[in-house]
């Protein structure tokens, strides 16, 4: 039996690299960027007019000129016009490229315009005002989006701005999610009184979609020969095998035995934690990683969030997430010498502090709480009393922000 | 000009209901559930064995029996066996339905089994132990997932467990995202020196995907007749029209004028905020809501997160999100009598408190900061100095947890 920290380190040592593929930028949302995006031009690419108004030579202002003759109108996207005389100006719109012959923009609010003459109503004009200077945000060739981050809407839009219509992103692993056990029937079926419907594998599959992974699903009956044959094929076809159930002390829990027969190297079996103690983890050559999670729905879900998703996150090349802490909103007592993962609801108080309220309840078996749980708190095994106001590490299971 | 709070209230008064549709449960992930899900059976549906071991009549234990004859093995999913004699037991597995003739489970760790006889090694056996009782989590017909919440992986799995293969979810609105302005060229094109590529509408479209909305896109040139004709059609075809650009004081900013000609009722134009002051909002009959956002990318994105996405959230029937607050990590000064939306990076300290670090920078124009910004802080207009340690409302733009 390993500790939670040992299990984490063993798994972390087995990250994999699934390679890189190219996608149209619009399809890359939520994928992991595998290249730096650079600007093809300065950002902004020209001295960008930041207010609607007129563009003048500041020299004229410095000399006391207040009335300017409008010699033309330049829209955003229009080719730059030219000003010949000091007392001439261009009516110019936000987003336009400032023509080289002028240097200062005076906004409409500070002007009166009549019969093609703009009169400046303020004394307060600075050289070069109301401009967003070429290259002020980024210079041509500078990195605007660094590799190894998730493609967000802002990244999609930056890719559009710099003309990167194809993005190199991390390939996703081929994943199979396997349920086990003769007590499980199809979702469409009405179970016999002593059967239940399959549900864990749907949960795992849905959770993997946050990475855009579309996992296959498979069910194994309590039949050692069938289990052996199916797992043999899965180890060839998939890079990640996630099992739920079949790893405890029961007579039909032959998943560990079969995996070892198939030369999957056991990295650990059993973790000092509740729920999820029977968790088994192994690797098959350099190719396939096997997470065999306990079959209880809460155990499956917590192990998925505590171990599998962070492993995927790391394998896709994302930097480690900052550790998150929350303050316990009520006392908890937990005697066993195990790390206790307790389901909680999270909220922020008005001081911006994250509070975690645990569910009263039926322990690891209470599947119904998972609907309302936002996260689980990781309570270390050295203690048995955990007091209100103490701060512990928290693992979110849904987005709270 | 309205305040931020007035703008918010006016928009909130215009929520819409887009109806309900039915989807296979696996396709309902991230949609909004429009019905309560109830259990078709108790949860658990039977007295569920919680440990691998033997099942006995407690009466035998009470009478001092320590050795039990194993009369059969019952796997999870197996039909319940029967025990006739007090000193008989069933070898039984986690997940099995406890047969009516027994009432107590003793785990393998507390047994020695030899030649079909199980000897109990502990004095410490309680009546009814190691069982997860029928209906302990939920009774048949009880609500397990309430309507008006987002379908998470846990909800998908609960739907599977209770056999709800079709889910009634909120319909999504038909949305068009419209960019405006002759300075914008297609992403595939190389812009002329005074042009830029379209990017805002990709950002808006991508951000809407968090609701699973697939928006259409449209570009309008600086041509009043074309703008009128296209907008006329959009008002008929779409329930939500999101424009970016064309609403300021410029000569080609005729979006507000055209919308009013098309009998879109202006609800407000201009908000006391920076960036995003020119924001225009209106409604077309009961059918269509029009958000005309400023064209600057940062303004577009902030207005989207501050106004449009919360409106969608409410229109889809989701309860209001709890307000989120963060502590300012450094002093900021902002003089204008406007609400200041400042882009920040968020992190939690080890006390579980959310800290917001503002970007130094170029103000609303700095599109490049959007890549790294996690959120924006809403700084009220009554102040001009905002000090480190003070707590302000924060609007996340990406998931931090």
TrEMBL record, chains A, B:
One Pfam annotation reads MoCF_biosynth
For this UniProt record, the keywords arranged alphabetically read as follows: Magnesium, Metal-binding, Molybdenum, Molybdenum cofactor biosynthesis, Transferase
**Pathway involvement?**
Cofactor biosynthesis; molybdopterin biosynthesis
Q: What is its EC number?
A: 2.10.1.1
Q: Describe the location of the MoaB/Mog domain by residue ranges.
A: 176-314
CDD domains registered for this protein in UniProt = MoeA
Instruction: Tell me yes or no: is Membrane among this UniProt entry's keywords.
Output: no
Q: Which Gene3D superfamilies match?
A: MoaB/Mog-like domain, MoeA, C-terminal, domain IV, Molybdopterin biosynthesis moea protein, domain 2, Molybdopterin biosynthesis moea protein, domain 3
Cofactor list = Mg(2+)
- InterPro entries to which the protein is assigned, alphabetical: MoaB/Mog-like_dom_sf (IPR036425), MoaB/Mog_dom (IPR001453), MoCF_biosynth_CS (IPR008284), MoeA-like (IPR038987), MoeA_C_domain_IV (IPR005111), MoeA_C_domain_IV_sf (IPR036688), MoeA_linker/N (IPR005110), MoeA_linker/N_sf (IPR036135)
Has keyword Zinc? no
Main EC class the enzyme belongs to: transferase
Q: Which reaction does it catalyse?
A: adenylyl-molybdopterin + molybdate = Mo-molybdopterin + AMP + H(+)
Q: Which NCBIfam families match?
A: molyb_syn
Question: What does the record give as the function of this protein?
Answer: Catalyzes the insertion of molybdate into adenylated molybdopterin with the concomitant release of AMP.
The family this protein is said to belong to: Belongs to the MoeA family.
The protein depicted here goes by the name Molybdopterin molybdenumtransferase
Query: Upper lineage ranks?
Result: Bacteria, Pseudomonadati, Bacteroidota, Cytophagia, Cytophagales
